[in-house]
Amino acid sequence: MTRGAGTMSNELQHLVDALARRLGRPVAVDDSAFRLLAYSSQSGEVDELRKAVVLTREVPPEGVAWLRGYELSKATRPVRLPANPELRAYPRIAIPVRCRGMHFGCLWLIEQDRAVGDPDLAVASSFADQAGEILFRERVLSDQQSARSGELLRDLISDEPETRRSAAARLTESGLFAARGAAVCIVVVAVPADGADLDEDDRLALSVSLDRAAQLLPARECLRMVRPTHGVLVTTEPALRRCPDLPMAVYGTASRLFGRAGKGHSVVVGVGPPAPALADVVSSYRGAAQAAQVADAVPFFRPVAEFGKLGVYGLLVGLAPDRLPGQLDSMVSRLLKADPVLFATAELFLDRAGDVRTVAEVLSVHRASIYQRLRRIEQVASVDLADGEQRLALHLGIKVARMRRLV
After folding, report:
1. Tens digit of each residue's pLDDT (9 = 90 or more) over 3-47
2. CATH of the domain at 375
3. How many Å apart are CA 295 and CA 299, to the nearest integer?
4. Do 311 and 203 share a structural domain?
5. pTM of the complete model
6. Secondary structure (3-state) at 71
7. Are 179 and 172 in contact (CB under 8 A)?
8. Chain CA centroid to CA 193, Å
9. Which residues of 74-86 are buried (b: 16+ CB within 10 A; e: fewer)?
């Protein structure tokens, strides 16, 4: 968290404490996603919903479903909520926290022993307005810092070494990124079903996905930006170890957002190799982009692919199509033309290091059938499977076909 954001959070906490003392009742402020931002102390009995929120810093899913029914994001005046026996929640009042037409969340009063009278409600509403001003300033500051860090991240993954070194230095010197350990890049790609370019709504969905993922990371160990075709997030290797589900969380949010929009986008995520220094994170970015490319082309790697686990695909994805030997294509094309079953058998046989027994078990056929297919593969592809180099050539050809989406 930046110094400015921390100061504003303290200001919000002081505001909540002051209102709680004045009204003699518990007060809390949450954001538009029902995540707790500040809360006062409370003496006496505490309802179960408040306990859960204080312990986890967010409203549990069943509570969120209940609250969404009141459409609090559209409210402009206090909303009284009755007790909820199922959630063991006392009656409470939600006062919208707004500023300049923007909704930031709600200020909450719990009516545990006595109802909130109109005079106290007017006081609380004025405090909610002050909370809106605080959160508005924090939003502006956050947007400014995001824009600045996004510009520096763009330079950090440029092709110019001096530009990268300068960006890394400015990021660390300004406190926008704490280079604790190696840096790791994550790339999220949404591929439209019709092959068209991403539109503004698509890029917004990617931006929201990255923003939500950033909430799982320390503020100074996360950089993010959206490029014309994909989203980019940079964090530290220690932060990723503490949050190993981060790539899947990015995928989950993006796929849900695109699903709600009714778009048939294929969402994949690539994780690059660690870069020892922030100035070298371009190597992690390129690896993440290539991992995402493999995940999109080869179903086995979906939805999240790590560059270090791509195997031979890690070599092939870095080669331009015109640099791949044409001989490999001819062997594979003959197999595909003759019988796709031969192609599948050859791939499995080579993937399993020639273990005929395993191949037969996976395909649920007798080993004798596998031997017959192998002889047929040798005839069709003009390859000797007893020759190590020829086996390697066929294996590479099959993987090239996968990368080229020929199968």
Report:
1. 344 555 789 999 999 999 999 999 999 988 888 999 998 877 788
2. 1.10.10.2840
3. 6
4. yes
5. 0.63
6. coil
7. yes
8. 21
9. eeeebbebeebee
